[in-house]
Amino acid sequence: MFLKTDQTFLRALEPTDLDFLYALENDTAVWHVGNTLTPYSKFVLEQYLENAALDIYTVKQLRLVICNADAQTIGAIDLYDFDPLHRRAGIGIVITEEYRGNGHAADALNLLLTYCRDVLRLHQVYCSVTATNLPSINLFIKAGFDQVGIRKEWFLTPDGWEDVVEMQYIYGAKKKQ
Questions:
Q1: Range(s) of the domain holding residue 44
Q2: How far, in Å, CA of 102 to CA of 67, rounded?
Q3: pLDDT at 43
Q4: What are the DSSP E strand ranges found in 3-158?
Q5: Backbone dihedral angles phi then psi of residue 152, each to the nearest 5 degrees
Q6: In this structure, is residue 3 part of a structural domain?
Q7: Residue 113 domain-assigned?
Q8: DSSP assignment string, 137-172
Q9: Which residues of the chain have pLDDT under 50?
Q10: CATH number of the domain to which 34 belongs
């Protein structure tokens, strides 16, 4: 398996991930960043899992499961808005609360960046992070992303409007010092 570090690995979705996806997709604490307004049923998620193995060039997205060294499922990392013509995609990542702060997100992001460069041959990837999510902003900055803008009052959360930081990683670009 080439999407692997000593403590983290990425793998494709499996039918056995149904309960994990059900919990993840129905976590209301993160709905605002994914534009979700309603819960997902297990039936809908089963259908999603049946089609998850389709080619990224067909479905324009890819979800990989993040596992720790003990093969426990601890999160997910997504490519979305995949555009093969312009060779770019968006990235989203979530680590379950109990495994945050242990380096798994950084490992998963770096593994996915390598996959995007070496396998998908992308020119760039980007992400949108709520301005108050400093751990995620720092994660992407440490991985080499540049902040390219702020969308004001972009997400309506239970606590009010929240700005979103737009970040971009261009392969081969000289990074700011």
A1: 8-170
A2: 12
A3: 86
A4: 8-12, 62-68, 73-83, 88-95, 124-130, 146-157
A5: -75, 135
A6: no
A7: yes
A8: HHHHHHTT-EEEEEEEEEEEETTEEEEEEEEEEETT
A9: 177
A10: 3.40.630.30
What pLDDT does residue 42 have? 84
Residue 77 placed within a domain = yes
Task: Indicate left, alpha or beta for 172 from its phi (over 0: left) and psi (-120 to 50: alpha).
Answer: left
Helices (H), 75-154: 104-118, 134-142
Torsion of CA 73, 97, 5, 138, to 10 degrees: 150
The domain tally of the chain equals 1
> What residues contact residue 165 under an 8 Å CB cut-off, 6+ apart?
128, 129, 130, 131, 137, 147, 149, 150
For residues 80, 39, 23, 13, the Cα torsion angle rounded to the nearest 10 degrees is -40
Q: Is residue 176 part of a domain?
A: no
Q: What is the pLDDT at residue 176?
A: 55
pTM for the predicted model, two decimal places = 0.90
